[in-house]
Amino acid sequence: MKFLRQVYAIVQKDLAAELRTKENLSAMLVFSLLVLVIFNFAFELQGVDITVLGSGVLWVAFTFSGILGLGRSFAAEKDKGSLEGVLLSPVDRGAMFLGKAISNWLFITVMEAVTLPLFAVLNNVAIPWFPLVPYIVMGTIGFAAMGTLLSAVASSTKMREVMLPILLFPVSIPLLMAAVKLTSGALQGREFADISNWFNILIVYDVIFLVVAFWTFEYVVEE
Amino acid sequence: MLRTSDRWLDLLGLATLILIVSGLYMAFMYAQTEVNMGLVYRIFFFHFGSIAAGMVAVLVVGIASIGYLRTGARAWDRVAEASAEIGVVFSTIGLITGSIWARPIWGAWWTWDPRLTTFLIMWLIYIAYLMLRASARDDPRVARFAAVFGIVGVINIPIVIMSARIWRGISPVLFQQTAEQQFTFGLTPEMFQTLVVCIVAHLVLFAWLLAHRTRLEALRDELVALRRARAR
């Protein structure tokens, strides 16, 4: 119970800080909208079958804009010196990781919740909400978990925001493959049996990296 | 305290030299020319060797990273760093020689075959690993960061292999026949012996380089310690 209260406290702290400025979320939203617009021109999305290319466009928007939020997650704490405060408080490191990962996951999910309808409107596609939303939510879990761990690593290096995508993208390629395939399967209305392999990969990735990140996080933040 | 010369290192170096020279001789003179592929197939002896050394290097990075997080001993960190550097060199050689082979045989420098895809992603992860080390060099926690990322990277490899396979299973296959299938069918005993010698030669070369690189790092640490002692 104590552990869950600590997790909740960390999430609450992050949400309160974000709700006061909203700078992180607004940057992510504007960026994901920009990605949608740029892809429209880069790929001439009018006229092509959007259910084929759309999943790639969506996930590039999600991950690129998600990485902005993840990068700020620890950089902001470092700049304000608030990370020391959190580390000094008697909070379990695992709880700290889970709290951070949950708040990052929430921010990315909010961004996705705005991006997805925008994508539907801009490209004139019918979104199959039921299978698609759970896929996106699950893909975001693994991405946020791994991103939280690597954001803590990257924020301590010299290159910071540059370092995070370099570390996070190669590691999350299997997750992206699975998420893109599931999304396009949902957009094209394919049977679940056709894409269940990818669903398994997504679950394996989520579980393994939640556990690994949870376990190794303390080594990263400890001074 | 380290001695200026370690005898076993020199012996290992000598073994490497002998193996490399005999590997070269066997690859170019002993193994006969392959009927379908012609002379170009000989690059495979070096290709397989480099790939094998690259894979072993990745395993060593993973083991050393876990070792470091468990014990906190600097020796593990030295091994991980050395192995990652050398592994990236071998993997790069493997990628390039593979491309040189693929161009005349498959008619393309690169295909998104699951093996190649997996290897490329693995290569990217270890490039990122080295960049992380370079970028956090001054931080005393760099060893811990690198160890965490090393573990993440090594755990990711089986998942990458799985997803690359499924990925190919769904999308159309450009080249049905993979390199290995072509190879095992036409492998004469001479070719097989050559392949074994070449792989062993590359692995021993890797071990020799790893020992030297780790020793260099150990000497550097010793130097820093001596300087500090004098300054005091």
Gist of the model:
The complex is a heterodimer of chains A (223) and B (232). By secondary structure, chain A is mainly α.
Write the layout of secondary structure elements.
The complex is a heterodimer of chains A (223) and B (232).
Chain A (H helix, E strand, L loop, with lengths): L1 H20 L1 H21 L6 H31 L1 H7 L4 H31 L5 H26 L8 H9 L1 H15 L4 H30 L2
Helix pairs in contact in A: 1-5, 2-3, 2-5, 3-5, 3-6, 3-8, 5-6, 5-9, 6-7, 6-8, 6-9, 8-9
Chain B lengths: L6 H24 L12 H29 L2 H33 L7 H22 L6 H29 L8 H7 L3 H43 L1
Helix pairs in contact in B: 1-7, 2-3, 2-5, 2-7, 3-4, 3-5, 3-7, 4-5
Structural summary, described in words:
The complex is a heterodimer of chains A (223) and B (232). Chain A has 223 residues and is an all-alpha fold. Chain A has nine helices and no strands. Chain A has helices spanning 2-21, 23-43, 50-80, 82-88, 93-123, 129-154, 163-171, 173-187, 192-221. In chain A, helix 6 crosses helix 7 (163-171). The longest helix of chain A is centred in the N-terminal third of the chain and has 31 residues, at 50-80. The two termini of chain A are 27 Å apart. Chain B is mostly helical and 232 residues long. Helices cover 81% and strands 0% of the residues of chain B. In chain B, helix 2 packs across helix 5 (142-170) and helix 2 (43-71) runs parallel beside helix 7 (189-231). The longest helix of chain B is centred in the last third of the chain and has 43 residues, at 189-231. Chain B is flat and about 70 Å long. Chain A binds chain B through residues 146, 149-150, 153, 156-159, 163, 166-167, 170-171, 173-174, 177-178, 181, 194, 197-198, 201, 204-205, 208-209, 212-213, 216, 219-220, 222-223, and chain B through 69, 121, 124-125, 127-128, 131-132, 135-136, 138-139, 141, 144-145, 147-149, 151-153, 155-156, 159-160, 162-163, 166-167, 169-170.
